[in-house]
Design goal:
Layout: E1 4-7, H1 13-28, H2 41-50, E2 52-58, E3 61-69, E4 84-90, H3 99-115, E5 120-126, H4 132-138, E6 142-148, E7 154-161, H5 164-172, H6 179-185
Antiparallel strand pairs: 1-2, 2-3, 3-4, 5-7, 6-7
Length: 186
């Protein structure tokens, strides 16, 4: 299996939008709406610009993708102090060939754990999604929160500990919650 995992380029926004729309379209039949189902090509371009979007390319074709959002991403709500992964998709022609597993493993292990030294990662999926929660739990994710998104979809948030020692240290460390709080410490 010959492929390349690399960062997405802004010039690929239209192709990436198409891959994501096709991958998420079947969820609409289950009345599951995520932000990507209403996103424009420009929205995808903004995400490529402001977040870290990886693509798996096989034979010059975008085959899978996964995006990581960080605490410093503008105008986003953050539920936890770890990176948030979203917009995971595999092209229809490539399903069942292991490409989804490869891009998730690369982002979790090579990028987040080994490069950024992140102690954990989290994601969200629809409670009523027929198979995603189970897939993520088999990959070591554990539910830690539930909520409803602005589109009315009940979500389950799952986290995966990437480095147990760093995770425990972070859990014990007092975190600065605001700039005002930081100023009181100086």
């Amino acid at each position: 299996m010959s492929y390349v995992i690399r960062l997405a380029q802004e010039s690929e926004a239209a192709a990436l939008h198409s891959l994501l729309q096709k991958a998420y379209e079947p969820l609409l039949e289950h009345n599951i709406h995520f932000t990507i189902t209403r996103a424009s090509v420009e929205d995808v371009r903004d995400v490529i610009r402001n977040e870290t979007t990886y693509v798996l390319e096989k034979d010059g074709v975008l085959t899978a993708t996964l995006t990581t959002r960080f605490l410093w991403t503008p105008a986003k709500n953050h539920l936890a102090p770890w990176p948030f992964v979203h917009w995971f998709a595999v092209a229809e022609h490539a399903k069942g060939q292991g490409f989804g597993n490869e891009i998730i493993r690369y982002v979790e292990e090579t990028f987040l754990r080994d490069t950024l030294k992140s102690p954990a990662v989290y994601l969200a999926t629809a409670v009523k999604h027929p198979w995603l929660t189970g897939l993520y739990q088999r990959r070591g994710y554990e539910p830690f929160h539930t909520a409803t998104n602005p589109l009315g979809v009940e979500l389950v948030y799952l986290r995966k500990i990437l480095n147990q020692q760093a995770f425990e240290a972070l859990e014990q460390a007092p975190l600065v919650r605001s700039i005002a709080e930081l100023r009181t410490l100086v």
